[in-house]
Design a protein that fits this description.
The complex is a heterotrimer of chains A (102), B (112) and C (129).
Chain A lengths: L2 E5 L8 H8 L5 E4 L14 H8 L3 E5 H6 L12 E3 L1 H10 L2 E5 L1
Chain B lengths: L2 E5 L2 E5 L13 H10 L6 H17 L5 H12 L6 H7 L4 H8 L10
Chain C lengths: L2 H4 L7 E6 L8 H14 L3 E6 L35 E5 H6 L12 E3 L1 H9 L3 E4 L1
Parallel strand pairs in C: 1-2, 1-5, 2-3, 3-4
Classes of the chains: A alpha/beta (102), B mainly alpha (112), C alpha/beta (129).
């Protein structure tokens, strides 16, 4: 059963994203919210890790959190999907359950 | 503790020092009612300062401290208005504090 | 310290405010800004450092309507009015995030870790957020 993992901390401040990716399984979803959105930036230090993880997982970013921080969808690594709050709710319903890495 | 100011039959929430809780509640009547409570009638010169503060807040998201207000008013409206004597005559309770309150802004940071 | 700034209100100290957190996700950045404004209102010698994720505080183009928070990034542009003009950004932090000074919304001085460390040592008070 596919799980939606969420993480909300900057990958440069905590190792939450790393742990999340290590324990998440192929076929699951990973939604980056709040300060975690920095992790999906193509110019950032976690771009390679996340690109690798994206080969077997769907990676999502919460759009309002991205915009608040001054970035746009074009600045993310390829393949990342931007969702709004409604999309967040849809994902929570779509996946079997939600696991928060806080 | 919250209280309210009554403007045209509508109760608007203010904090314990009389500043509007919701910036969006503001309109010119609010300023007039607050000034009347202080037995002050707002003139064009008062409005010039109030509008200046509202513009400043819209631009910078901060209510300027008195020193900043004085300097910025001086830059925009000239030295005869950008001095504390002129501003204190308009707003005797402290230009930044009192005018910000009438303008519906928070109390300036750093004011006691 | 100059003579004129020492008079009246009391002693002027060199305060350095060190910002290491991204905006919005936590309250640190906003609280730090409050402290900066209060320090400046009391005529203190205030400088700001942005390092680690703190550099994100100065990113241009922040649009916060979607998250229902105040876009306080505009306030950094008012710091000059408060005579707060010493803004330092650590080069290493900027580069690690793929950012350049063109991505920042105010003029800053970019310094390497060694220079910044030396500057920190010369302060009277260093407050970290």
């Amino acid at each position: 059963m596919a799980v939606l993992h969420t993480t909300n901390k900057s990958p440069l401040q905590t190792r939450d994203l790393e742990s999340c990716l290590r324990l998440s399984r192929p076929g699951c979803g990973v939604l980056l919210i709040e300060d975690a959105v920095y992790g999906a930036l193509a110019a950032g230090t976690t771009a390679a890790t996340l690109t690798e993880a994206a080969r077997q997982r769907r990676i999502y970013v919460l759009g309002p959190d991205l915009a608040a921080r001054g970035f746009t969808a074009e600045q993310l690594i390829p393949g990342v999907e931007v969702v709004d709050y409604g999309g967040f709710v849809d994902l929570a319903v779509e996946y079997h359950h939600v696991q928060a890495w806080i | 503790m919250t209280s309210a100011v009554a403007v045209k039959g509508k109760e608007l929430e203010v904090d314990e020092e009389g500043y509007l809780v919701n910036l969006g509640d503001w309109n010119e009547d609010v300023a007039n009612v607050m000034a009347a409570e202080d037995t002050l009638t707002l003139t064009e010169n008062h409005w010039e300062v109030i509008n200046f503060l509202r513009d400043y807040y819209a631009e910078y998201q901060v209510a300027p401290a008195i020193r900043v207000l004085t300097k910025a008013i001086g830059k925009k409206l000239g030295p005869e208005k950008g001095n504390s004597k002129y501003l204190y005559e308009l707003f005797p309770y402290g230009p930044a504090k009192q005018a910000c309150r009438y303008a519906g802004l928070p109390k300036p940071t750093g004011c006691i | 310290m100059s003579e004129e700034r020492e008079g009246g209100a009391g002693q002027v100290k060199r305060f350095m405010i060190v910002n290491r957190k991204a905006p919005y996700g936590t309250i640190y950045a906003l609280e730090s800004l409050e402290v900066v404004l209060i320090g400046a209102a009391f005529d203190q010698d205030v400088s700001l450092v942005f390092l680690d994720d703190g550099v994100y505080q100065l990113k241009k183009g922040q649009r916060t309507q979607g998250i229902g928070q105040k876009n306080f990034s505009s306030t950094y542009r008012a710091l000059a009015d408060y005579d707060v003009e010493k803004l330092y950004v650590e080069r290493e932090s900027l580069e690690a995030r793929g950012l350049t000074v063109d991505d920042l919304l105010v003029p800053v001085e970019v310094l390497g870790s060694a220079e910044l460390g030396a500057l920190m040592e010369r302060q009277d008070v260093v407050l970290a957020f």
